Amino acid sequence: MFNIIIRLGLTMNNQNMHTIEKIGGTSMSDYTSVRNNIVLGGNRKTLFQRVFVVSAYGGITDLLLEHKKSSQPGVYELFANGMGNDGWMQKFDELKQTLYAINQTLFIDGPLLLKANNFLDERLTNAKQCLLDLQSLCQHGHFELESHLATVREMLASIGEAHSAWNTAELLRRDGVNACFVDLTGWRTNKHISLDERIRLAFDNIDLDTQLPIVTGYAHSDSGLMSSFDRGYSEMTFSRLAVLTDAKEAVIHKEFHLSSADPRLVGEDNAVPIGRTNYDVADQLASLGMEAIHPKAAKGLRQNSIPLRVKNTFEPEHTGTLITGDYVSDSPCVEIIAGCKGIFAVQVFDQDMSGNLHDYDRDVLAIITRFKAHIVSKDINANTITHYLSASLKTVKRIRAAIEEKYPTAEVDQQKVAIVSAIGSDMKIPGILAKAVKAVAAKTVSVLALHQTMRQVDMQFIVNESDYEETVKSLHASLVEVHDHGRAICLAS
Hints:
- By secondary structure, the chain is an alpha/beta fold.
- It has helices spanning 25-28, 31-39, 60-64, 75-81, 87-107, 111-137, 149-174, 195-202, 225-229, 233-244, 263-266, 279-287, 295-303, 357-370, 393-406, 432-441, 468-479, and strands spanning 4-7, 10-13, 19-23, 50-54, 179-182, 212-216, 249-254, 276-278, 308-312, 321-324, 336-349, 374-380, 384-390, 411-423, 447-452, 458-464.
- Helix 5 (87-107) packs antiparallel against helix 6 (111-137), helix 10 runs parallel beside helix 13 and helix 16 (432-441) crosses helix 17 (468-479).
């Protein structure tokens, strides 16, 4: 007989039978595939004992906030930076039409479409009125817009996940699945409570044996989820749900396999799915902007020994990539070649730095942090500090100006570069550095900088942007393709 435990109002045995699963925005945009491949398909043994945390439909959060990669302003950015004009209202109307068009595609017509549009209209009307009221209020000198912007960002973000979660639950019910909409957005709430408490309240009366919860990726909390995790907020909701319910496994559904390299660069026949890896590798990928999961979300899973599985929505029978804390490859090997373009190398040289390195390091880092640029990597020697930043040109210029103001005698330069990394759970391979350098040199690629740490889980090449693709292909050919990995690098069970 099993011991019975109660968590969040869910009755479960100590076998930990249920999974917490997250569906990304691109996958969410294809409801038929979500229903057939994720909800009904795959290797599942039961329809239930699963909780789905969903992202907004692809591109919607970009319209609500700002484009994640190009930084093109959405409603939030236009509202935050344009109090004197109505540009945000035009963007809001564009957003509204896009959301209603999605509904039209999903529901076609009839009473369910009307119901879906009514749900959406209530959220959009309330949000727009809030923005108008705030805009009017902040025209008075006693009220400062800046102090309200974090709340505005949270409110707008919540609309995308509420829309996709409500729609998916309704569509599944239409198709005979007993799904239920779980709204963590705190819309019109009068309680400012912790994330954990909001999850507990929402799941008090849910029976995982008979119900399939569809949960908003955004969750309202007293500390503000986006202030800590920004666009990674849905993964934090997903992670906390897994931890608080003691899930058997956490699963993320994406539109691609986690593979040894981008198939578009190295070729479909050469890229190999990664069957097993660890959270250390996942962290390295996140630093490059290729998130299997947000590092802070991964931390909770790792500390509670909850495995993470990354699956391809469009290949439901494939076991995907299993990420655990303790995995190390049976023999040392490179598991993935990954990288990023559009990186700014900000180099600070000052003769006075020698002997005072710690002061310069602290001050430059403080400036970068102030402007919220993401540091991908970093070099230091006696008189030079170079940070490799993922940020807009506008942000980099501001950082550079602030450094020059702090250190007038310093030479501050910037250069657009690319970073290519070889990553693996164990890369203690004699001669691997020499082999990699030889492969890159054979393609006449100029290496601007090279990093390899004692931990030996990654090796980074800093190259010109124009050499990015060639570097990826040459490293993949020499470090991965030379081995016969078959269907996957250590196929997951």
